[in-house]
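Cross-posting from the chemistry board since nobody answered there.

I work mostly on the small-molecule side, so proteins are not my area. We synthesized 2-acetamido-2-deoxy-beta-D-glucopyranose and want a rough idea of how it might sit in this target. Sequence and SMILES are below. Is it possible to get a predicted 3D structure of the two together?
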Amino acid sequence: MASSVFSSFRYVFFLFFSVASSKLLLFPLTNSLSSYSHFNSTHHLLKSTTARSTARFLRHHSRQVSVALSPGSDYTMSFSLGSAPKRTVTLYMDTGSDTVWLPCKPFTCIMCEGKFDPQSTPSPYNLSTSAAPVTCQSRACSAVHSGLPTSDICATAHCPLESIEMSECENYSCPDFYYAYGDGSFVARLYTDNLEISMSAPPSLVIRNFTFGCAHESLGEPIGVAGFGRGALSLPAQLAEFSPHLGTQFSYCLVSHSFDTDRVRQPSPLILGRVESSISVNKAKRVGAPRLDDFAYTPMLENSKHPYYYYVGLEAITVGKRRLPVPENMKKIDRKGNGGMVVDSGTTYSMIPEILYNSVASEFGRWMISGDKRARPVEDRTGLSPCFYVDAKGVVPQMVFHFGGNSSVVMPRKNYFYEFTDGGDNGKVKRRVGCMTLMNGGYFPDSGGPAGLLGNYQQQGLEVVYDLLKKRVGFAKRKCASLWDRLI
Ligand SMILES: *[C@@H]1O[C@H](CO)[C@@H](O)[C@H](O)[C@H]1NC(C)=O
Ligand SMILES: *[C@@H]1O[C@H](CO)[C@@H](O)[C@H](O)[C@H]1NC(C)=O
Ligand SMILES: *[C@@H]1O[C@H](CO)[C@@H](O)[C@H](O)[C@H]1NC(C)=O
Ligand SMILES: *[C@@H]1O[C@H](CO)[C@@H](O)[C@H](O)[C@H]1NC(C)=O
Ligand SMILES: *[C@@H]1O[C@H](CO)[C@@H](O)[C@H](O)[C@H]1NC(C)=O
């Protein structure tokens, strides 16, 4: 039974389950690579994904320049929005942003060539007749304009002074807002409409007056975003207003895929609400674990300058037997709001500062080099490094991330070492190669932004929980594909 439900996921675009009398909500996350098949080789795919990760990280640093723009995220989720007509929308699930927005008709996308698959990307959203503009004197309008007082915003919206003084500007719309991502930007206007989530059994769950941005113009962002960051307009925050327990935590469990087409197509569960009582954790797997739940929790770090990211502190990385120290700015955020590591669902590969990357790569090489030779041509063609020819002799060392709060996460090997077959084209000999999938974030002693990013590739095979109440992020090893069966 469970397996037939599971296989139907592949074909049903949009599904939703209510579990344990709607104590938690479950969405399937779809990896966008599953429908984005224009890559002509593994090298091409890797080159494209590494370039995207770098672009997004660099934009996290400096929001002024945008050279290489690209899809903001790798995983999409769906729900329906509006009434008369109601339409299914598919958006990137992004913990690195704090609003929900989507492209609206008429839509102009600048520098979006090659960034989406025209066949699988839905056409821009047509606002329903039930959509209402958000007024300039609302909390939502203030939130989207960086907390500016509503009187200032209403003045910009040309509400007359006497109406501002009397708080009678409800007929003046919230002005357009500009929003910049790690890797793109857009201008949008806020609306409210019904958000509807189909349940496994009717009736469906309807959230009235859900606030979202409608963009007619974007730079490098052809697909809308469901922001899961910290902020009043994020999807979890708005669900919390409807039902508080839905907003206290969320988690996802990304199916480990190693770019294998079949595995990339498998949906990954996104769980909103509290989980503990509903999942029966496989006890046999936790021999020696004294705690009731098996998450390794690390505290979220506060950052008043960039309040919507989920920051954690990284204390060290163990490669093999050696515990490698990290620069101080990975452990904490300074007074200017710089430093720390952002847990991001929207970046593929983790980015770490150059000095740490060099020590990790060199320690990694020490284990690999005995049996395997460095595959430098592969490094140039993929953007990943170091890469090695794998002759079954080399030893891939264990890798452990040590986060603040004494929280150590043993990385599944597939999360940091990707093996594939090189060659075979142009009559070249086929050889197995493997590349480390952590990336060099460069050296930015004076620039702002986070010191590192924990990308989704390094989050595969783990359930990552964002506990918003206790302000902590937890990691637990899971078989994410079969987590469905235990949830539904
Ligand atoms: C694959 O596509 C990339 C980018 O479009 C191109 O540079 C490369 O030459 C192509 N490779 C092959 C083998 O067709
Ligand atoms: C968009 O919706 C409006 C009504 O809300 C309708 O009149 C119009 O035909 C729709 N346009 C398209 C292209 O679907
Ligand atoms: C807002 O517009 C509605 C409908 O046009 C009108 O009835 C109402 O009086 C207006 N409110 C204010 C404060 O002008
Ligand atoms: C939704 O907004 C309308 C006005 O646009 C208001 O009358 C109604 O009370 C709101 N409903 C909720 C549940 O907030
Ligand atoms: C961290 O964990 C280790 C092993 O579980 C333990 O020995 C150590 O005392 C802990 N340190 C702190 C500061 O809690």
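Reply from a structural biologist on the board:
Welcome over. Reading the output above for you: Residues 1-22, 63-71, 277-292 have pLDDT under 50 and may be disordered. The pocket of 2-acetamido-2-deoxy-beta-D-glucopyranose (ligand 4) is lined by residues 132, 208-209 (CB under 6 Å). Happy to explain the token format if needed.
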